[in-house]
Amino acid sequence: MDEVRLVTGWIAEMRDLAGLTNTRIDAAFGLNGMAGHWTTQGAQPEVPHAAHWPKLLELLGVDELPETIRETTERLVAEKGKPGPNWFRRAITGHHETASPGQRWKARHGHRANLSNSARRDEPATEAALEWAGWGTALKPAAEHWILCRKPLVGTVASNVQQWRTGALNVSACRIPHADPRDLAESKSRNPGRAEPVTSAVYGTSRPQQRIDEAGRWPANVTLDEVAAELLDAQVPGSGASRFFYVAKSSKTERNVGCDHLPARVTNIADVPGSKGANSPRAGANRSGAAQNHHPTVKSIALMRWLCRLITPPGGTVLDLFAGSGSTGVAALAEGFEFVGIERDSDYVEIANARLRHELGPEAEIAHLYMG
């Protein structure tokens, strides 16, 4: 894998020197996403096939490969599609009568695929593989955590907020609306806010009684998506428990708004329909199909607007150090804040700028938004 990244690192360096992006390389080949695998230093790097190299070198403005890169590439390309030595150490446990769905998909889309019957070898190839069979490296994601932090205070919270305009939460602007008039009336009946204090087993004696704010409930440090809200409500039918939490209503189409002119790409070329990757619980929300905004973890604009509004004072600036496809920026601009984003992936910068331009309008000037 280190040798593969040696080649992809060289391609990425030449791409940057030529002023290209992965999107432009994909467009030149009529591909959807392979350039990202040809240039990555992260997960799933891929060395281009021999047939791709002449055109790729022409695009990069390079006459020939450096000797080390050439020798490594030729050897890696020759090994493509061949099983490694551990494959033959496994016991044959059966035979595929037909090609797998993933193999058939690859064949239809121009990828090399062995469609003949083949042996299935499921037994561990080594003692270590046998010992650690069934182990993995991650759990299925069921929650995403947000960390709120601030520097140690000098003086009081009030003085810090007045001097630096940070360190407070805009509770009033982020209250959770009551579900309906009946919900509000029931809350008032349970919390009349009488003058006499009450005793609580949790909070102690002589506590003032809670008063209901008609603008909504105090925001919680847990937010839900629509599916989680439905599951919570279903646990106790009729309880409507999700009404105590903010529910991020994300649109299925908002990820591609403003990106119509960009080529569609599959998030992960290995996650083809029917493959193991496509069925993995960790594959992400964009694991099937193709999209112009191919970022694997696009955030809900509604959720990001709520979070920006919660911590940013009026007229403030939102800084996103890992801007991705620009959801935080779109949200910040929609709330009337300034936005500064930093993103190192040139493809995501292109997507983010397209989304930001759509939010601001075609005549808007975007400057100093991204440093990569």
UniProtKB/TrEMBL annotation:
<dbReference type="InterPro" id="IPR002941">
    <property type="entry name" value="DNA_methylase_N4/N6"/>
</dbReference>
<feature type="region of interest" description="Disordered">
    <location>
        <begin position="180"/>
        <end position="209"/>
    </location>
</feature>
<dbReference type="Pfam" id="PF01555">
    <property type="entry name" value="N6_N4_Mtase"/>
</dbReference>
<dbReference type="InterPro" id="IPR029063">
    <property type="entry name" value="SAM-dependent_MTases_sf"/>
</dbReference>
<feature type="compositionally biased region" description="Basic and acidic residues">
    <location>
        <begin position="180"/>
        <end position="189"/>
    </location>
</feature>
<comment type="similarity">
    <text>Belongs to the N(4)/N(6)-methyltransferase family.</text>
</comment>
<keyword id="KW-0808">Transferase</keyword>
<dbReference type="InterPro" id="IPR001091">
    <property type="entry name" value="RM_Methyltransferase"/>
</dbReference>
<feature type="domain" description="DNA methylase N-4/N-6">
    <location>
        <begin position="279"/>
        <end position="353"/>
    </location>
</feature>
<feature type="region of interest" description="Disordered">
    <location>
        <begin position="270"/>
        <end position="293"/>
    </location>
</feature>
<protein>
    <recommendedName>
        <fullName>Methyltransferase</fullName>
        <ecNumber>2.1.1.-</ecNumber>
    </recommendedName>
</protein>
<keyword id="KW-0489">Methyltransferase</keyword>
